[in-house]
């Protein structure tokens, strides 16, 4: 699915609940930070080796997928509220990184 | 662009630089948290009204777009390393939210 | 109570449970970030005015106090593990800020 | 030094600069999160073994001490603005943890 189509689904979900009034950029950035904290919590106290083992479990992968999604949902909404074309922003950031870190 | 296509570009960028060895799930989640901190910094000490005014400036919007992209780049790489279909995860999270918060 | 005395209580608590093995600097910094996420969550979606009202409630203040404590507990343990005299570090940071932001 | 004395120094520093107007609980929690991001950045991409080696350097320890201090300065100011006795809150949290995790 196109990234911009996912954003359209999110904004439609949001607007049907009349939640736009809460969605200031500051509130959305706070929410992304709250969810990144929950994502980090999944890896808290675990070694890289334990995480590799845990990733065998579909339940563990689903938990991670859900937390990543929570962060992404807030980021896509934030981009929308700031009138940012996030697909273009990501591609332009990758290009910038290409120049910054040339392949040897 | 398809979300999974963006991931493919990122992983290709990463592999040509031989950076996979650094990309443990724990390290990628830490990096997402570092970048979310930089995103929050853009709104630090500013009121919602000031942010609305600042958003008139293309430069300010570009700064936000770059920080959102940095977080998303790490999240997409993390999802890939955890063998998570992030598009499916996001759509399934939206469906879950539809059931949790029914439109009145 | 002296800050260093609080640290001594924390390390004693930790060592009696044999948890030092988990307390690498990286794990402790992750834990501080997880707890800061929970602290932010208390203010999520709330306006400054609502927070002022909520602060009238002792229960709300206690919730905030508990989350701040969780972050501080990890920070003090992290400082200890890194052999940092945190009292000296804070006072030296305040002095640095005094020079950086002179009173007009 | 007493924890509450450190808070007094911070509030005095702050009030002589007339910065109280920026210090809403929400802004202070955001600032703590921004600084925790900078703390995490010090450990980004590094293994536990590399960090042990880096900790031999006084400069590295000082960098960590400065970032921990930045977070603590915002947390102490936040506790003050919320009328929380942070020393009591920390000791009461340790007692709670004593009951939650009894020594076997």
Question: Can you put this structure into words, describing what you see?
Answer:
The structure is a homotetramer of 104-residue chains. By secondary structure, chain A is mainly alpha-helical. Helix content of chain A is 76%, strand content 0%. Chain A has helices at 3-16, 25-43, 48-54, 58-81, 86-100. In chain A, helix 1 (3-16) packs across helix 4 (58-81) and helix 2 packs antiparallel against helix 4. Chain A is globular. At the A-B interface, helix 1, helix 2, helix 4 and helix 5 of A face helix 1, helix 2, helix 4 and helix 5 of B.
Instruction: Give the oligomeric state of the chains in this entry, treating copies of one chain as homo and distinct chains as hetero.
Output: homotetramer
Radius of gyration of chain A: 17 Å
Shape of chain A: globular
User: What structural class should be given to the helix and strand makeup of chain A?
Assistant: mainly alpha
Biggest interface found: A-B, 57 and 57 residues
Largest sheet of chain A: none
Order of helices and strands of chain A: HHHHH
With helices defined by DSSP (H or I, 4 residues minimum), what is the helix count of chain A? 5
The whole-number mean of residue pLDDT values of chain A reads: 97
What is the straight-line distance between the termini of chain A? 34 Å
Give the number of DSSP strands of chain A: 0
Q: Provide the low-confidence segments of chain A as ranges.
A: none
The level of helicity of chain A is over 70%
